[in-house]
Design a protein that fits this description.
Layout (H helix, E strand, L loop, with lengths): L3 H4 L1 H5 L3 H4 L46 E7 L2 E6 L7 E5 L1 H9 L13 E6 L3 E6 L8 E5 L3 E4 H6 L2 H12 L4 H8 L6 H8 L1 E4 L8 E5 L7 E2 L5 E6 L2 E6 L8 E4 L8 H9 L14 H26 L10 H12 L6 H14 L3 H19 L6 H9 L30
Parallel strand pairs: 3-7, 10-13
Antiparallel strand pairs: 1-2, 2-3, 4-5, 5-13, 6-12, 7-9, 8-9, 11-12
Helix pairs in contact: 10-11, 11-12, 12-13, 13-14
Bound molecules: S-adenosylmethionine.
The site of S-adenosylmethionine has 18 residues, from β5, α8 and β10.
Amino acid sequence: FQTHADTHEICLSSPLLQHEVHVEQPICAAHTIQPAQNFIQVEPELWDENDERYIPAKDYKLSPPWKGPESCFTEFCIYSNKEIGGSGMVLITAARQAYLAAKFPVPAQSSIEPTAYYEKKIPGKGIGLVANRTIHKGEIIFRALPAMLIQATPHMDLDPEVREDLYRQAVDKLPESTREKFMKQMGDTIYAKMEKNAFRLYTDGDKAHSAHLASYPDVSRFNHDCRPNLHYRLRNLTHITVAVRDIPAGEELTISYIYGQEVKSERQSQLRAWGFECSCQQCTLSEADSAASDTRIRLIKELEEEIESKMASKDRGDAIRPEMGGKLVELYLAERLDTYLAPAFTRAALIYSMFGNEEKAREFATQAAEALVREYGPDARDYGSMKSLAEDPKGHWSWGIKVVSGEGVGEGRNRTRGKGK
Ligand SMILES: C[S@@+](CC[C@H](N)C(=O)[O-])C[C@H]1O[C@@H](n2cnc3c(N)ncnc32)[C@H](O)[C@@H]1O
């Protein structure tokens, strides 16, 4: 029983872009920005080896209010739309990618009311966002479109001066209020702002050349915590942040910049690449509590591997024991892994259902359905299955399949698979 999370690991683990595409040293000192150069106005072209036929860039037409291609450098040009999402967007990309990006849906409702949070200086972290009222589990904080989207190739390969000039021209095409927010992000240069704040996304499936950096100035204010109170996911171009527990007024709103299900030393070493030493609650536990946390992280990995390998084995999980599901959830909760609960609840619900434990199957399936919506949205693949398991366990495909006939689970459903039972 592959969970949605198993096939969409990128949602769970996808770190921010800086971590993935850190091929150059970030520019630390202020970089002198040259006056706009006269860019060579070449006809932008894109030879995409994945295309069945060659399509010249001019055939990738963007409809108004999109403008572009402008200020091209080789095949990378600026495309802009001052109206989209009410805050505008600029792209620095190749023609085909601009064409694809401009076709993505625009979210209907952008975010929680702006008075629900405020900006505050957080000691040792710069500026952060703090809850101004209780924010309830499941509330969506931002449903944001990027202000700036830059293809990863020019970001990595362009000469720094040309690049900064191109970026400056693009930022100048944003509406004033968005431009101001963009420029307030951490980082001395526009390049550094992208490095420190952007997320990685793909405009064309998982094709490597469609990798882009997406900058969301509102989202950029979230500081890191290894046990954050917000989960984020990227859908199309939209960045969605959701509360994973009730957040009282006065508490800082945080996301995780890294995959949190790692032992402390690994988490800390990944965060050093961000240029800070993590001092979140989980990283400042006592030595004994920290060792216990690391042990739980290792146990979770072992238990998940054991469950998966047993389920994948020839006898379809005959060696699975019902308490494995309960133990898995217990470890996740003890470790406060609130942003990763959906797969744990889903596994537990299915295991208990397989063994005909109605109460626990219902309880975990209900929790799984809620966590799936928080972590993957209402179209999460396992959502329908968990909802029907919660409502009618005995009608679910998994019900009683590990129970021997005559052990007391619903008649006609006491199917056993494999041998020895
Ligand atoms: C995406 S920005 C977050 C907002 C930023 N604090 C600001 O003032 O705009 C990321 C930067 O914030 C700082 N930061 C974020 N989380 C931190 C943490 N847990 N501890 C220390 N610094 C942190 C680091 O400088 C990091 O490079």
